[in-house]
Each structure stands twice: as structure tokens, then as C-alpha cells.
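Make up an example, fold above all:
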Amino acid sequence: MTKTAIIIGNLLSLCAMITDSISGTRKKHSEIMAVQIVSQVFYGASSIALKGYSSTVQNVVAVFRNLAAMKNVKSRVLEWTLVLAGVVLGAVFNNRGILGWLPIIANLEYSLAVFRLKNNERALKIAFIVNALLFAVFNGVIMNYVGVVASTVIAVTTAVSVIKTAKEK
């Protein structure tokens, strides 16, 4: 991989980091999903630059998942189509071996949370923390150093938000 690709991928991840950090502090489900759509576009572009294709597929599926969640679409067929698309397409485009499964698992876990726990802010944020940690490891594999930091910061920021909200109640 060229240094230029690594720099471009990491700059795109920086943009994603900023938007994801914002999503971790939102209180409304629709706001979380809207901001995460923007971050998924940045992450997808970053993963293309860094040749992490199983991750790119997950970013595309995540955009559709978040749009459906925002529109409050209640279709089990759509939900399962998106979940299965993430797994199947992720497996097809996986060019990183066993570690290429990390974004697939992260997307599966978070998609299930979005569709099953959409009215539970705390559970949604905890699922987001798990998602971020899995992506932190994968980002290290594809030399997305900003992504490693971003995913870690996102996990911490979201955890602080969960703790703060729990203390307020």
C-alpha cells in the first residue's frame, strides 16, 4: 500500500472520527442514526483507500440500516435482509482473512441492536461501544491509525455518556 493511500485513508477517518464522536453524545435515536450515516460514508471511503473491503461493505449496509432506523421502518424482511447482506457481502469481499471478519461481526452486532433495541438509548450506546472496539482492532490491521484512535475515543466518549446518563437518573 502506498503512503498516499495511507494518508488519504487516515484523513478520511479523521472526518469520520469527528462525526462519530458527535453521534455518541446525541440523546435522540434519530440524531444518533443521522450523524452516524455521515460517519459511515467517511469510514467507507477510508476503507476503500486502505483496501479493507469487508469493512467498506459494512459501511454501506450501515447507511441503509441507519436510514431504515431513522424512518422507523418496521419490516422484519428489511431488517433481516440488511443483516444477512452485511454478513454475506462482507464474506464475499473479505480480503483480510480471519481479521476481515471483525467488521462483519461488529456490523452484525450493531445492526441487531439498532433493530431490536431502538428505543433503548443505553443499550444502543453500549452496542456502539462494542462496535467501536471491534473496528479499532480492524483499523490497526489496515493501517488506519486515525481509525484506531477514533474508535477508541468513540468507545470512551460513548461510555462516558452512558455513565453520565446513569448518574443523572
Summary: The mean pLDDT is 91. Residues 136 and 160 are 18 Å apart (CA to CA).
